[in-house]
Amino acid sequence: MRFLLSSALIFLISLNSFSQAWVDCGLKGGYGVTNLINSGVWNEPKIEPLISTGYAYGGKLGLNFNINYQITLDFIAKSSNQRYLFEPTQTIDKWEKNVNYTSFDIPLLFRHNSDNGSFLEIGPQVSFLTGATETTGSNSIDRKDYFETTNLGAVFGFGSFIFGGDNAYLVFGLRLHYGFQDLLSNAGGKNSNKYFPINNGEMDVYESGFEFNSYQTTNPISGLVYLEFNYDLAYLVRSSCKRTVLRFF
């Protein structure tokens, strides 16, 4: 909540500080690699985290101070996956488990647009968990209680203008995200040696008391390719009574 209030305050202050600025809006969609990083899981030979994919879509508001500098506030619905391959012994068939976790992401980014049409963006992101489902074979179980409801992270991205006119244009980019906070909750095995993806004891059938050597945090990471359609919405101008108002194109 403090992140949202701070973002809104920064945006409002900026609106009243730059009389030659303009506001744009946009729609975007992306697809790419999503994973849960945990060194304990990655170092366990009987569990192999597999490369997984996800997608995201949403919109943005941008405040352009000039043609080179911009602050953007995005509103993104994201669906992420992490697949695991379990290999208990050489004589037992392997099997897969997948966790799909969905979130509503709000990144506040500073974007630098260069004169050649390329851009760089960086900033914080707060994510709100909206759902989590664990699937093994044809069996799906709600596991939202295994994960924390919010996560603070950072975003870094880059891309380039593709085509368009003066007020509407299409851009292509790559956006990387890393969550700084541990994603697991107490129900997911937080601070124990038997944490997700083995906290419900599925490995105990093959090895009694199976657990990790120590607790390690689980952090979300992703790299998505985006297409973004932008439209310049309105200029910020000073009225005769010295108030900043929007003048739409």
Q: What is the topology, as strand order, of the major beta sheet?
A: 1-3-4-5-6-8-9-10
Helix content: under 10%
CATH topology: Porin
How big is the Rg?
22 Å
Structural class: mainly beta
Q: How large is the share of residues in beta strands? A: over 45%
- Ranges with pLDDT <50 over ≥5 residues? none
Q: What CATH architecture label applies?
A: Beta Barrel
Number of helices in the DSSP assignment = 2
Shape assignment: elongated
* Largest sheet: number of strands, sense, barrel closure: 8 strands, antiparallel, barrel
**Can you give the mean pLDDT?**
87
Q: Mind telling me the CATH class?
A: Mainly Beta
Q: What string, H for helix and E for strand, traces the elements in order?
A: HEHEEEEEEEEEE
- The number of E-state strands comes to 11
Taking the alpha carbons of the first and last residues, their distance comes to 33 Å
Summarize this entry quickly.
With 249 residues, the protein is mainly β. It contains two helices and eleven strands, in the order αβαββββββββββ. It has a single domain, classed as Beta Barrel (Porin).
Topology of helices and strands:
Elements: H1 2-15, E1 22-37, H2 39-42, E2 47-50, E3 52-64, E4 69-86, E5 95-113, E6 118-136, E7 139-142, E8 150-164, E9 168-179, E10 219-238, E11 244-248
Antiparallel strand pairs: 1-3, 1-10, 2-4, 3-4, 4-5, 5-6, 6-7, 6-8, 8-9, 9-10, 10-11
